[in-house]
## 1
Amino acid sequence: MMPNRILICGGTGCISSHSRPVMDRLEKELQQANLDQEYQIIFTGCQGFCEQGPIIIVEKDSTFYCRVDPDQVPAIVQDHLKAGRPVEELLYTNPDTGITARTRDEVVFFQKQKRLVLHNCGLIDPENIDEYIARGGYKALEKALAADPLQIIEMIKKSGLRGRGGGGFPAGIKWETARNAAGKHKYVVCNADEGDPGAFMDRSIMEGDPHAVLEGMLIAGFAIGAQEGYIYIRAEYPLAVRRLLAAIRQAEEKGFIGDKILGSGFGFRIRVKQGAGAFVCGEETALIESIQGNRGMPRPRPPFPAIKGVWDMPTNVNNVETLANIPVILGMGAGEYAKIGTQQSKGTKIFALTGKINNTGLAEVPMGITLREIIYDIGGGIKDGKKFKAVQIGGPSGGCIPAEHLDVAIDYDSLISLGAMMGSGGLVVMDEETCMVDVARFFLTFTRTESCGKCTPCREGTKRLLEILERIVEGKGEKRDLETLERLGRNIIDSSLCGLGQSAPNPILSTLRYFRSEYELHIEQKVCPAGVCKALKHYRVIPEKCKACGLCKQECPVGAITGEKKAPHVIDPAKCAKCGECVKKCPFEAIVHG
Amino acid sequence: MDPKVAALIDKYRGYEGGLVPLLQEAQDLKGYLPREVLEQIAGGMHTSLAKVYGVATFYSQFHLKPRGKNIIRVCQGTACHVRGGTEIMARFEKELGVGSGETTPDLNFTLESVACIGACGLAPVITVNDDTHGRLTPDKIPGILEQYQERGGKQ
Amino acid sequence: MERITVTINGNQYQALKGSTILKAAEANNIHIPTMCYEEGLSIPGCCRMCVVEVKGARKLLAACTTPVTEGMEIQTESDRVVEARKDILRLYLASHDLRCLTCERNGDCRLQDYCYRYKVEDTPYRGEQKKYPVDISNPFFFRDYSKCIMCGKCVRVCAEINGAYVYDFMEKGFDSKVTSAFDDPNQETACTFCGMCVQVCPVAALVEKSVMWAGRPWEMQKVKTTCPYCGVGCQLKLKVKDGRIIGVAKDKSGSNLGHLCVKGQFGWEYVHSPDRLTRPLLRKNGKLEPVSWEDAYNHIARRLSSIRDQYGGQALAGLSSAKCTNEENYLFQKFMRTLIHTNNVDHCARL
């Protein structure tokens, strides 16, 4: 008899919410209850619902448990597995409706998703190739090897698949260019240098379904006529590296990677190259420089990597999510695939929901879904009942989209017209307590640090943009600063060497577009309406509410508060360090800032 | 001449693009990349010291100065930022008495900021060595430091 | 070579297929500004000064790296292009040491030239400035990175022409700089002091010490000459002021394409040495005394003849120079063989 499976999420999110101790405990409890023959524990990849980790799924009745503590494991074993009564307190309850979900499909977070690329994530043991094969894995490769490479390229073109890493370039055309390029040695590079702050879908795919990436690379290799593949992965992803290496080893043993793959004439090897901590290496030509052991500084294009890439040979670079789409397309057929999505953007996109949202995590949705559906239905709305202000899409290259555009159907092109971009699909939700100038400053701090320094506009320009923003948040902004930001921003976009510089000003330009008045308040009134910019905060005591208890005076680290007994206290703005300790200590909410 | 570094050089000599993984392994070995090691690598790989130094200073993973036993990395990603990452960093700086990028005088802790580590669902988040700690508040920090202080002491 | 037609600034021109926009424009007397481009070196496309507008392209394209295609429509001085170039210049100025008054490159500086060309008088970007100590440790030139604009030409000429690999880009982003490993002074690196880095620097980040306070660029006469050292016969231009040599500038017309070694670049001080021989001397009574050329030749002829007659031609040998022309060397060996009666003739390539 096949044992029943119990799935425990082993994605990075759940591991850091301590899913390993939960698994150890479950193992022990099953043994003690003599159920260890009947149940098999599978440590899976990411379920995507990181907010609620650690997550356990009891497969026989699809029960979905979340936020499981090791001490609650005995209850699962005794009440549920033995007595057949699911543990109510571990089920997910929708905070809005109060409705409790028993299975994963009943959880609203999963209901609006269309999990094609993530169809294995969370449901298989990523370190066991047999589980991947059992769910149809490597069937697409088999299909590809039986076909003509040109047919495969046609199929990818017909599917409408566009690069999921940022630019959205049609994958089929990229493949075709590499196929037609002259060169006896060709490469496929999997760009796994996922560096956008707020994006972790590639990590989850690699951790949860590494073979899907390998299969995508193999098919790409076959289609373009390549012999070798590199996976260039961030060194910050140790678990993903381990699982990829294990997957490559197992695929080699099974003959999916090697010399005559599945008895065909096609041979392909895959090597893992670890990055060394440079965001710009997500740019494909910088990535190639890094693979070659150089400083990761982008090359001018043309020639494009498809013509001259790694070691000057034709190289096809796709990111993780793009490659994981390949087996899906071959599996369902290009025509079926192209039915999903919008006119110009086909298939699904995985978004990483973070920020001030209730359900942080990963969600795969069809292109063309609205932001409202993602944020309010899947994401469960804004945390702590606050008001939505903007959503930042596309990381440091992207932009902030305000509430009035929540109902736009999102795809590559609609996002660009809104001043943002798909980027890698990071989606950071911001509420009324977020200062948009501060957000722009944050992103520019990032790009200024991560600029490689090769070209003048990006190296010098991001620094100057950041300096202007820093002056604004410190209350030293001048009226002409906004014009300067816009002009310099435009010129950096227009004249930079690579995609990093060409998109670095987007966070400023998009916030200026939608939240210009917020900038103006910072500059003209020296006020930060969200109350974030410290230098613009002014703490004061409301005399009517102050009971002169003296707690604030005691707490103030810089002695800025004075006051006699029975008289309202006063804060000296010249001394105040704006640490906010007094606000926290005041039992009467008599201290405010603005 | 460090024989262990020499062995690494032998491993990567002739391996195209081997400089970055060689530096990575040399750093794993020595904890950081002192000048002698870079000079040995340049000599052994038949490349210039300028190139080796250029590569070593380009990538944030490489360190040319000694580092602490425990490496604390405070995530400065977007999600962590909006969920209070700055206060987390400030608290670490206060507790350790060093700034970001610095090492405590007892070589126990090195404090660093890191670009997004992709655990945004747990923001604000830090890593200490290979452990991830998420959903932090400033008040949880002394407790975390204590865990590693003890571990450091036992060594 | 196949030719194609391109439109530059509204006019049609013929261009070689495969050439870059920069070269195609240059060939038709349209001058696109560049900072990092240098004929003979690899093309990084990093300064972005040469960006141009190409119809159909979303962004501006670097003229130095973009090949021309049939029917390409290019604008090299459109408002959009000029706007971008102006901001690049303003960005340079924001982190440049602007003590131009006493700068040795004042009047011979690309940054000045382009600021003038695009009417950039000042920069609105007030903030952190890069300040580095000036390296004066070697006798030939100083490195002042506070004036460096990061074009990387010195890195490339050192690696691609000399092969010394002294410089590279260090650190990253705004903090990056072009320097030697660990900022070592050039004395302690593999530097051969060929000075080619000094010659390609478009600004005053690398300057010969000899020109310091020695004169303004426009006061210098540039005298084309052949390097007096080895047989290669490198061409160079002496920078001369008031009859005195104060430095060497490159001359690209010769086989050396403007490249020099330490001797040609910096080894000219002997010209003005008081110890230098300026007329023939003859030792008389144990003391060297000036004589006329005629007396000197007579003395040489007499002594050569007498030695030959007394001891035979094998007692003599002649050494000529690789710097002489073939004709001169031919005459010299003929002279040795027929008149001195010896085959003892040789030359030294470095004499």
## 2
Amino acid sequence: MMSQHPATWGQPTPANSSFNQFNTFPLPQTQRGQSSHAHHGPVGHTQQPLVTGTSVLGLKYDGGVMIAADNLASYGSLARFRDIQRLHPLGQHTLLGVAGDMSDFQWLKKELDALLREEDALALTDSHPSLSPKNIYELLSNLFYARRSKMNPVWNAVLVGGWDKVKKESFLAYVDLLGTTYTAPTLATGFGAHLAQPLLREAYEAKAGIDGNGPLLTKEEAEKVLEDCMKVLFYRDARSLNKYQIATITSEGVDISDSKSADTYWKFAEGLRGYGAQTQ
Amino acid sequence: MFRNSYDSDNTTFSPQGKLFQVEYALEAVKQGSAAIGLRSKTHAVLLTLKRSTGELATYQKKLIRIDDHVGVAIAGLTSDARVLSNFMRQQAMRSRMTFGRAIPVGRIVQSIADRAQTNTQEYGRRPYGVGFLVIGEDETGPHLYEFSPSGTAFEYYAHSIGARSQSAKTYLEKNFENFEDAPLAELINHGLSALHDTLQQDKSLSLHNTSIAIIGPPDAAIENLGQSAAAKRGNFRVWENQGVEELLKAWRRSRGEPEDGPQEEAAQPPAAEQAQSAEGSENAPAGAPAGGEDVTMEEQ
């Protein structure tokens, strides 16, 4: 833009100058950013996920909640990154299990960690308890819905697991890129919603009943069910990996296991037509 | 025109290290009518003395509800109070909408204190001419804070601001050790006694000039729960006019006075000169019009 100021008339204005020389209103800038599109190119929206994580499973058990996810971040159908942790603790009593776009997950981690750091700093002066799992879930559902409404979704499906210190009960809920939210004693994202959720429900309802009033699974039982489900997913979900972690969230806090593998059996595959060496 | 050469803008220190505009703003708070706050381990209470601008005017409200769990009493410029309380309401709603959480009381007070501080440091602005007593209840229990135009926010067991508030402070300092375990009725009686001490000789607390706000579990013995759903839930509620009558009667009974209060008051409306001379004027700058108990323009 040309400078209109008498002292510098005719010279180009600096590229980063945002001064409105003509006092026009509304200002010749978009609401979104401080700088104009001409200088920085068009606004980019996430149109599709690139590096993705697959299913996350969640299950309430006696004394807490467990969340499982494998360690794979796929690049399309390529098993690109095989050592990615998709379970992220937030403060003392909340944990996120994230499926979908891994760069959006990294952004989400950064934003939420910053928020919690700010909360911790404020708590130094007023000792007020930090955000509860419910508070963080509420924030995420607002965020995801707002972003999808701007045609720029946060391309993830997230399970929030936690322990509510006030109500003294476990917390488990789902939110995805459309802002869809729901809660249940067993949850799964993506492929897991089809393959693992029925198995999780079966195990949960076998003890607790369909109304959930009976006893909950013990920690050992819950871990066993999740391991079975991870194995089923590894057999049938082509974007999965037999290397996963399980997080437990209790009144004691968050504990994320080391990576582990399920015993799998592939002998039967040799006899499958189209799999092994063809004999006829 | 100016009282000294360092008060024409708020960002320049005097050689004595004072910011005169800030001090004048604190003066505006001192000239507003009194507000008192006190707290037990279950309740927080505000009591205020209302003024009217004249015989034909209503008494100006001094208690503002911010949210279910926060409310303020004001002393100073009412219009500045409205700006700040609107901001507090926004903060409270923002917290409820984004986190589904009632905003912690200390943080909402800090947010207006930070705004007030900016006004003491940036050229071309002026400090707010209003002070708040803020009561609220959050996950850490009931709280009482004072906000002042100098940009400070402190927490108190009991505190008073506004005209003649020093007398109330004297009462509170003498009695505050009993507040922590006091039941609601007793807490209110202490508050009314303190408020009574801020009155001029010939004035008394009446249902017209007294208003009381409470946060904490309701007490059906002294509160008319049919009147207030907020009270039933233990949320911030204000008792004034007819609503404060029973509370005043209970207080007079506790002092062994006739429960209907002094009777001659109604027969003797204050004369204009009398009102002009009045409270708050002892702190007023020389030559400035005095803010009387019953006749003022701006400050409440």
## 3
Amino acid sequence: MAIHITGGHVIDPGRFNGMADVLIDEGRIVAVGPNLKVPAGATKIDAKGRLVLPGFVDLHVHFREPGFEYKESIQSGAAAAVAGGFTSVCCMPNTNPVNDNQAITEFMLGRAKAAGLANVFPIGAITKGSEGKELAEIGDLRRAGCVAISDDGKPVMNSLVMRRAMEYALAFDVPVVDHCEDLHLAEGGCMNEGVVSTELGLPGMPSAAEDVMVGRNIALAELTGARLHLAHISTEGSARMVREAKSRGLQVTAEACPHHFTITEETVRGYNTYAKMNPPLRTGRDVQAIKDGLRDGTIDVIATDHAPHATQEKHLGFAEAPFGIVGLETALPLTFALVEEGVLSLEAAVDKLSTAPAKVFGLAKGTLAVGADADVTIVDQHEQWEVDPTKFFSKSRNTPFAGWKVKGRVRVTIVGGKVVFEADRMEG
Amino acid sequence: MSLKSKDLLSLAPLSVDEIKLILETADSFKEVTGREIKKVPVLRGRTVVNLFFEPSTRTRTSFELAAKRLSADVINFSPSSSSVVKGETLLDTARNIEAMQADIIVLRHPSAGAAEALALGVKSSVINAGDGWHEHPTQGLLDLYTIRERGMSFEGLKVAIVGDVAHSRVARSNIHALVKLGAEVRVVGPPTMIPAGIEKLGVRVYYHLDEALRGVQVIMMLRLQLERQGKALFPTIREYARLYGLTSERVQLADPKVIVMHPGPINRGVEIAPEVVDSLSSVILDQVANGVAVRMSILYLMSGAS
């Protein structure tokens, strides 16, 4: 069934930015422009005053299935994704069992297909069980549909193993993603190390724990020629090193999360476990460095690190509560706040949510080019709303942004030519 | 005048007037503890629950004695051996206790922030008896009381806090209160035990004990957790004792009227030489005695009794 999106402001980063209609048929973009020839019976979506964007691509989510379905399932995660405008998500392998083999990858893809909401791209483990010792069957994982490899959350500490993984990955042209954290330096830490951790009496993790691993990984990428993607960088030092690596032409890309460019370690005060994530919230100086990195292109991608946890887990003591917050349903307004602030142009913001991430993982997504998969997100850039976690599609509620008044809301999400989310219907 | 909050969770938010009120109220209870019949009926019919998730003898005993001398009913509850094993959360444990009409819950917990979390969840008053490395407000107050009892004024008072500041809740409570009261606070220890950004709390950092002790009127020694050796914080107890142990010779560097404090339990011969513990400068046992009076004052003020 054809869909005719009319009167919207279409932004296809690097290709088109202006008023146009979009015609979708048989799951693909058929035409973009004025006065389109519309087949009879096409569904019309009025996008007047709205933005029509290539569906967002999140390189970093945790959907907890298999193993921790009480936090999130692939179904609920995908529902949260499309409600947040994300038409494609890449799932980290720290499930139980770990996604370190073809069977788990196939299971995840099957669950995603059954959900029929967002496109789900699994990320395979670098090492068996993410234990950092022996390489997982990366060739098999790739063949089964994994789009990248990572031991996210359990970074590969052994530099030789990491070197071998990067070398081996070359044969499959698969990006290697690392959560940069020196586990010895960060041992026992539960927030950024600094005056706030000192006052609260909480064990800190210094920013150097991230920086040393960013430095190591860049050196190994240089040694091996691998495609290195740095997950959720959060420090001034990381941004500086990535900038330098890019200036030397290394194949290094980086992502930043909305919370790392929006709030600081001060949010932890009062032992707010919704402000506990890894990497931790940093200082105002780091937040500025992340914004600068986004502005000058050092940081390619905005990813959420969507990490659902059950309420009873987040209600433990600060040191005992798990790391992580949900992010899919708040990423858009937090990113658009950077546009308001003048950090990013509107087109650059859309690029970092959509086109750039697709490019980093080599996904045929993130564009409204004729012939592309019809993954489209329609946004009201100016709509103000209050974040209410009880209305999240995610099973979990762990966000530090509850009660925030934000601007920019997803109205319609289309995946593969099918409307999978409509705000009006929800409000109806 | 009364305390603003229903709880006593840390000294950081307390006003100077509130601190003074607690200390002045303690004076009258100090007098009670010197009587033959050491008991007053002000908390008769009230229930105080000591909820201790960490082993503690002196703090728990001190609270128990304080509550009993005020005629409150006291329950000691050490969940480490019961419900914690069953996976009950702190809040659920506390709500159960609250359901039994506890008026005041005294909480000792290994996690920083536990008292704050508890106070938000229950209507009973919560007194923090030590939460992780965060604060130990009643210890801070009894230390202040002991200083004041010696006739020292806080304004301009030179205080050295010595040892493992990073892992010490006693240090944090004292720093907040002493800085607020106008004292000049120095912290001294190996750089591995001085937490990041501590100078922003208004203290001066020293790495050499002799330098830090010059002219101080109060020396607060912190207990060295011997099990921290092997965590690369200090090489050996031998070297720690040589560099940061308080000896009689070092006490000479301080003001002639200096007092030496220690929250206990003491590692004799490690952070403090035995002859210093037993010297005339030592007020370590006064601290213990004052602890009961200060805790009576706090329980009394928090109960709203009059």
## 4
Amino acid sequence: MTKVINHIKEIRLKRGITQIQMAEDLQITRQTITAIENNKYNPSLELALKLIQYLGVPIEELFYLEEDEV
Amino acid sequence: MKKRTEIIIYAVVVGSIIIGGLLGIYIIGSEDGTYNFELFLPIVIGALGGFMVFLFLSKWRQKRNGNVPEVDERTITLMKKYFSISLYIVLFGSGALLLVLFAMGVESIETGMLIVYMMIIYFFVGIGAFVTKQL
């Protein structure tokens, strides 16, 4: 079983961006940001691309697959 | 959403409430023989008042949260899941209820009872949808 992990929270906090500000800029709800940051929700490809563009980082720096050891 | 579309939606909703109220006056009138048009004013005040409360709450919310949308892709996905699950619960739940009632010896259901049952279902599905939207 693989899981998508992201570094959005770390990058966002490093840049001093609040969740509300990010939600306004990307036109999504604050709850969605919380869910993505806590790896509870995988964003659509469209939103993932928007996040990459917004934070200005390469995709592999933002999202990566974590494989569970069986 | 475009401002024009938004205004059209609000006008249709408020207009439908007022038309519904007028239909109510007509139905009562056709039963009793007197059409009580004094009820028209409370209908209009109620519809517009409710709309004002909604408008005030949405403006207050916008002021508090900024220009954040109420619905996004995650909310839509959650709603889809919720409605697909609630469909099966209502479908099989109603079937099970009918079987239980039949086993208990109930052979006919009053239309009024069906209306009450539907109202309860709408109420719970509505509350559930509201909670799902907030998640």
